[in-house]
Amino acid sequence: MPVLKANFEACQGYANCVDAAPEVYDIDDDGVVVLLKAEISDEERPRIEEAARSCPVSALTIEDA
Amino acid sequence: MTRTVVVIGSSIGGVRTAQALRSEGFGGRVVLVGEEAQLPYDKPPLSKQFLTGQWDVDRVLLLTEEKADKDSIELRLGVPATRLDIAARQVLLADGASLEYDSAVIATGASARPSPWRPESGVHVVRTLDDSRRLQARLSDGGPVVVVGGGFIGAEVAGSARALGHEVTVVDPLPTPIGRVVGPEIGRLFSELHHRHGVVTRFGVGVEAIEGAAGDLRVRLTDGTQLQAATVVVGIGAVPNDGWLADSGLPIDNGVLCDQYSRALDAPDVYAVGDVARWFHPGHREYVRVEHWTNAVEQGACAAHNIANPDDLRAYRPVEYVWSDQYDWKAQIVGRPNHGTRHETVGSLSAGNPRAAVLYTDETGRLCGAVTVNWPKALVQCRRLVTDGAPFDDALAKVSALTPPSGRSAGEPVAGARA
Description:
Chain A is built from two helices and four strands.
């Protein structure tokens, strides 16, 4: 299953990911991304990929397990 | 039969459209045409981290050859498109080549509005990587710096130049430049932000002329005063790159006019996304052109979906979102605060520890926009509430219920204080 990764140091709290895929991305009180799931299904991958690509600092990636 | 999509423009809108086509399962050819020979790069850091030298070019790349290969995106970089022939379904390139398409995506973006003042040298704009490099080199020769234009780009460049240790003055004919976006009251707080960081503003005053040469420029203002500058940066907006389409037959009017699906009017095989597109926004019931990074990404994804799924067309009706990092403020703006007739602030924008959300409502009584500062959590909430068309009072209650920001609004009880 595809694995969600985040570079928490790079995250700037722009929050596009949360808007695009609120079931896998959230943001904490300090404005840093929170991963709500470790893995996603292949079916949801395209949409989550688009959410990851909406990150202005490319802090989000999806890797093959 | 293999379908071909030709994407013209290799900045954020073009790159993300090409990638989204693959995410949407499009199996045909994808060709990405770009005027610059440079690998596609991202623009927001050009006025900030790249300009100050914190980030190098690798950090701003949007696409590498390896990533393009992986998604089978054919790159045609370093050659501008010169013509679109709708009847023949061809994109003509400056090197004489032509690319046949089944769908074309216009993503040629916008250019910095050129400076109307042309002294011998020393006047810069910031739009491309080369612009930012040239300015960076010039700034290393010393200040003072005059920035013409107090909008987002101007404010960010001023902050960067100040961070590099220069004396900086920002000039703008409007009394509160950011007020255009957030209203005059909050706009004034953005002006004060400059002052707190040692940047001088001359707002409400225009530029009459700029004379001299790099290192020794004189900026004459409309009130008769004059500023001395080593370097002048002009950030007075952008103009859509639609000139190459003048003889295409496409309707052009401050951008490529598109329907709600981002298809050019009268040419359903041609899409436009990002800064160059002026499309019919079904929520606002009017044609809009939006120069925001997020808009280019979202419109690209929507256009890619529509190309890959012609039987399941999606209307594009985004809620506007833009950010601007100025000094110690991360400002995030959602919706249309400038349509607001009233606003309320949750949290505090005072100097010590600014963290707040300003919510705006219009005559409908709904939340029409919000500005947050250093509070991404509130931004997320506001973005959802604007999307849902939430009543203003409900929105205000929901944002107030978030973990209280460390700053305080005037009138709130102070913890531990005795009356």
